[in-house]
Design a protein that fits this description.
Number of strands: 4
Order of helices and strands: HEHEHEHEH
CATH superfamily: Ribosomal protein L30/S12
Structural class: alpha+beta
Number of helices: 5
CATH topology: 60s Ribosomal Protein L30, Chain: A
CATH architecture: 2-Layer Sandwich
Strand order of the largest sheet: 1-4-2-3
Distance between the termini: 12 Å
Helix content: 40-55%
Largest sheet: 4 strands, mixed
Radius of gyration: 12 Å
Amino acid sequence: MVEVDKILKDTIKNGDVKIGTKETKSAIEKDTAKLIVLAKNCPNISEISELAKKKKVPIYSYNSSSINLGYICGKAFAVSVFAVIDDGGANVLNLIKKR
């Protein structure tokens, strides 16, 4: 999981992400999202998953809580979901291929 955390941190630091349910849904609908990262306790998991599947956007299930995902994102609050627009060279899409 340390490798996953590092890749996500690099993506957030160097790339372009949209944090939160509203921003993520908007990115999916606009076809700009390349990957959706969901915390295991995301309250809108089914709604976002359905929308992502409809638009054929891959989903990565982060195997920890939204508090830990918020920490990875460098935020002082819980983050239950974010959309990756540009990975900033972190190769975040390889997370999907490894699963």
